[in-house]
Automatic annotation (TrEMBL):
Residues 38-65 form a coiled coil. This is Uncharacterized protein. Keywords: Coiled coil, Membrane, Transmembrane, Transmembrane helix. It comes from the Bacteria. The chain crosses the membrane at residues 71-97.
């Protein structure tokens, strides 16, 4: 059961709230205060509009990136695969490409063959030396 002092304080709080209210009523505001409130609300609305526009611009930018970046990545991967697969074919092509012999090699071969034939046809002679060979002595 509530005590007398608690009920008294509750009654005082209710009467004071009823007397003063929660703040000024719209009827008690002056025209200048109304203009200030409207100006503040317009500024807040403008700021919210700017932020919404910035958010929409960011969304469009991210949407554009999501569309273009995968295409670019796929193009880079395809180009790398094409190079990686084509490089061995290029190397094999270079190795099997017909090369022209230098024109001097035919003449050089003929000269070498002539020299070999001339040396083979000449008999090998042992040139006598003026010093007789010495045998090792057992001393």
């Amino acid at each position: 059961m509530p005590t007398k002092t608690t009920s008294t304080w509750a009654l005082i709080a209710i009467v004071s709230l009823l007397g003063t209210g929660c703040g000024p009523s719209p009827r008690e505001l002056s025209d200048a205060q109304w203009l200030d409130l409207q100006t503040d609300m317009q500024q807040e609305r403008a700021e919210v509009g700017r932020q919404r526009d910035q958010l929409e611009a960011d969304r469009r930018q991210w949407d554009q990136r999501e569309r273009t970046e995968p295409i670019l990545a796929a193009a880079v991967v395809s180009a790398a695969m094409l190079i990686a697969c084509g490089l061995p074919l290029i190397v094999v092509g270079i190795l099997f490409w017909p090369r022209k012999e230098p024109p001097a090699s035919d003449a050089m071969c003929e000269v070498l063959i002539d020299e070999v034939v001339l040396h083979v046809s000449e008999p090998k002679r042992i040139v006598p030396s003026s010093d007789p060979p010495k045998l090792a002595s057992g001393k």
